[in-house]
Amino acid sequence: MSASSNKRFGIVVKMPDNDPMSAPHLLGDAWSSERWYDSAEARDKAYAGMLENPGNYRKGDKPSIELTKVEADGESTL
Fold first, then answer.
1. Which regions of the chain are under pLDDT 70?
2. Contact 70, 1 (CB under 8 A)
3. Does pTM surpass 0.85?
4. DSSP 45-70
5. Which domain holds residue 17?
6. pLDDT of residue 78
7. Could you give the CA distance from residue 9 to residue 77 in angstroms, rounded to a whole number?
8. Is 27 exposed, middle or buried (0-12, 13-18, 19+ CB in 10 A)?
9. What is the pLDDT of residue 70?
10. Pairing between β-strand 66-71 and β-strand 9-14 as defined by DSSP bridges
11. Count of domains observed in the chain
12. How far apart are CA 65 and CA 57, in angstroms?
């Protein structure tokens, strides 16, 4: 896993197993996203925000994503 520029602290976003959005005609089962930050503090703030429900979701709905904190050397942090 490589970070863009000098950004070392990241968040990997994936879907849980058997998520309906992982259907081949939608996102597919290999979908993931990485977001990189200049500091652990910036990453942790973004992580906390990503744990909150987005304002455009219906009451009671929750995003089905798995978030993992990572560092540019590839190690996960929890």
1. 1-5, 74-78
2. yes
3. no
4. HHHHHHHSPPTTSPTT-----EEEEE
5. 9-77
6. 54
7. 10
8. middle
9. 95
10. antiparallel
11. 1
12. 14
Q: In what order do the strands lie in the sheet with 9-14?
A: 32-37, 9-14, 66-71, 76-77
**Residues counted in the chain:** 78
- Tell me how far apart the alpha carbons of residues 36 and 34 are, in angstroms, rounded to a whole number: 7
Phi, psi of 45 (to 5 degrees): -65, -45
Q: Which two tokens stand for residue 41?
A: 């503090």
In a domain, 2, yes or no: no
- Say which residues have a Cβ less than 8 Å from residue 63's Cβ, sequence separation at least 6: 53, 54, 57
Token couple for 59: 């009451």
Helices first, then strands: H and E counts in the chain? 1, 4
